[in-house]
Amino acid sequence: MLTLLTFGPSFEMPSHSPFCVKAMALLHLSGQDWQPKYLSDPRKMPLGRLPVLKTAEGRLIPDSAHIQAYLEAEGAAFDAGLSAQDKARSHALIRMVEGHLAAGMAHDRWLRDECWPEVREAFFNRVPRMMRGPVSGMIRRKVRAAMMINGIAQFSEEERLARLAQDLETISTTLGTGPFLFGERPTAADAAIAPVLDMIRTLPCDTGLRRLVRGSPALMGYIKRARAALYPM
Ligand SMILES: N[C@@H](CCC(=O)N[C@@H](CS)C(=O)NCC(=O)O)C(=O)O
Questions:
Q1: Domain Thioredoxin-like fold, which positions (predicted)?
Q2: Residues with beta carbon inside 6 Å of ligand 1?
């Protein structure tokens, strides 16, 4: 039995990390037997992050892309039937969403004062109440610094939203009439991308980014299909 070391559920999602939900979706699609093990502190993990897959032999595999490669080596064919051109588009889309759109979602979770109280309670609920304020405040300061370095927090609200809207339009255009990004059945791109859209949909406060996703019938329909196919809860 495989064990996925993952952050726990929050905001209608099976984990608060999009990379953990991606790994869950890949495991679900692979048909392998697996179970989640919830952690809140990844510092002792091989890369200091989650998700990490623990194999039946006890090997630890960090990073959702390495987990995907492991499952493929074990026989999963997430992108079966895709042309070389579609595989290239899939790769570029995943990089766009994991490198940019996910940062926009994380920006709204961590840096918006209207969202922060609910995010803090959801993400730090294992920290004793007395310590929750200082611990979460320290981590929030680190996240803010990282988002300035990344650049996502440097833009005005209008500029940031315009850039994120281009990502959403790219996803909608690729989706076309669907049902999934590359046709009739979900592929690795859906496993990586749908959780990020779903996390924008379930942001705990009203943001411009959330309004863009909720205001798109195409994206909302896609998220609903992807939830049912990839991480039924
Ligand atoms: N490239 C990694 C990214 C994983 C990642 O960044 N995980 C974040 C949560 S979304 C993490 O564990 N950060 C450390 C922390 O929260 O302490 C993957 O695809 O798995």
A1: 18-114
A2: 17, 19, 42, 49-51, 63-65
